């Protein structure tokens, strides 16, 4: 590690590198192609940042490209890399979809050494000849298990093909997928596999709970959780429509919640994420756009409003809590059938799924005991005594007034046994009609 990096490493409060940071530094700095596998929250961004920046030359144009699956993760990574790059007088520019293209093009004219971006925007700028890749010496593909799927795989390969043939490759992921065993076939180079998932000890204690709640009552359950002191959570939805309905309901009810979806403008997305990080909002409602890589310090809980359908999806969602030794809580909502399916899905993993119950203002693993009618009858209710203060009449409480007793009280209080008779207009008219009929008959 460079001396500048060692000093900054201590300034940030780190005592020693994590397992992935130690394992990949020498291979990446030594021009090897690397696949790094490590748990979520284990410091993978710093793991590839330090060796990658160490080989760059200031002022020599774009030499490093880092690809991220989402705008949020690209912006987050660019900030981390910029913090280290300024120590070596290197410039970092973020290129993300949804941002102003003209501004990004203007920044490229300053010839930054490092580009962090989403594959679609990077390829568009390369196709428009605004971004030139002929000097790139290293390509980092972060969250590789996600980026190397479907159409995105073709986009990443197209970007790599515009680089020199001997470009160094680095792939990083928290989960293993079949394509990560076929990287040499897809990219034409052999890749050294480094897996530290069993050696890593950066994960804090995370409890995985199952809370039985029907679909129609999940919004109400979120409101009840907000009553818990210091509670904050990232809430994952499967469908954007369901998310919008919940967000709209919470907005009208002035609940402390914000939404983060792919259809929002980048400025809105950044504000929602920033407000949540700073504690201005206590619930961040999102789809899986926020499931990967996002670092939210000391996040207490993750809630699965809609349950994930794959193991990798669950791993990345729950990886937002319990980072860097902090404790965390995962709360999966669903009916009995949903929770059984989740247990089957995760039965081959090491996750210990425990039933949760909401009692009072706390989550507990102890099932509340139902009180039977007989038990309820044996409990003597405490009598509520209401003391009426006498009106200010110049007489002390408890004393009898002097003089003659008030004899008009009987007149004032009506006798409940004597009810006032109301005249029935219909009956009166009925008698008159009979009288008229008799008179007509006589005539």
From TrEMBL:
<dbReference type="InterPro" id="IPR027417">
    <property type="entry name" value="P-loop_NTPase"/>
</dbReference>
<dbReference type="GO" id="GO:0005524">
    <property type="term" value="F:ATP binding"/>
</dbReference>
<dbReference type="InterPro" id="IPR014001">
    <property type="entry name" value="Helicase_ATP-bd"/>
</dbReference>
<keyword id="KW-0067">ATP-binding</keyword>
<keyword id="KW-0378">Hydrolase</keyword>
<feature type="region of interest" description="Disordered">
    <location>
        <begin position="378"/>
        <end position="443"/>
    </location>
</feature>
<dbReference type="GO" id="GO:0003676">
    <property type="term" value="F:nucleic acid binding"/>
</dbReference>
<dbReference type="GO" id="GO:0016787">
    <property type="term" value="F:hydrolase activity"/>
</dbReference>
<feature type="compositionally biased region" description="Basic residues">
    <location>
        <begin position="417"/>
        <end position="436"/>
    </location>
</feature>
<dbReference type="InterPro" id="IPR050079">
    <property type="entry name" value="DEAD_box_RNA_helicase"/>
</dbReference>
<dbReference type="Pfam" id="PF00271">
    <property type="entry name" value="Helicase_C"/>
</dbReference>
<dbReference type="InterPro" id="IPR001650">
    <property type="entry name" value="Helicase_C-like"/>
</dbReference>
<dbReference type="GO" id="GO:0003724">
    <property type="term" value="F:RNA helicase activity"/>
</dbReference>
<dbReference type="GO" id="GO:0005829">
    <property type="term" value="C:cytosol"/>
</dbReference>
<dbReference type="Pfam" id="PF00270">
    <property type="entry name" value="DEAD"/>
</dbReference>
<protein>
    <submittedName>
        <fullName>Superfamily II DNA RNA helicase</fullName>
    </submittedName>
</protein>
<keyword id="KW-0547">Nucleotide-binding</keyword>
<dbReference type="InterPro" id="IPR044742">
    <property type="entry name" value="DEAD/DEAH_RhlB"/>
</dbReference>
<feature type="domain" description="Helicase C-terminal">
    <location>
        <begin position="220"/>
        <end position="364"/>
    </location>
</feature>
<keyword id="KW-0347">Helicase</keyword>
<dbReference type="InterPro" id="IPR011545">
    <property type="entry name" value="DEAD/DEAH_box_helicase_dom"/>
</dbReference>
<comment type="similarity">
    <text>Belongs to the DEAD box helicase family.</text>
</comment>
<feature type="domain" description="Helicase ATP-binding">
    <location>
        <begin position="25"/>
        <end position="194"/>
    </location>
</feature>
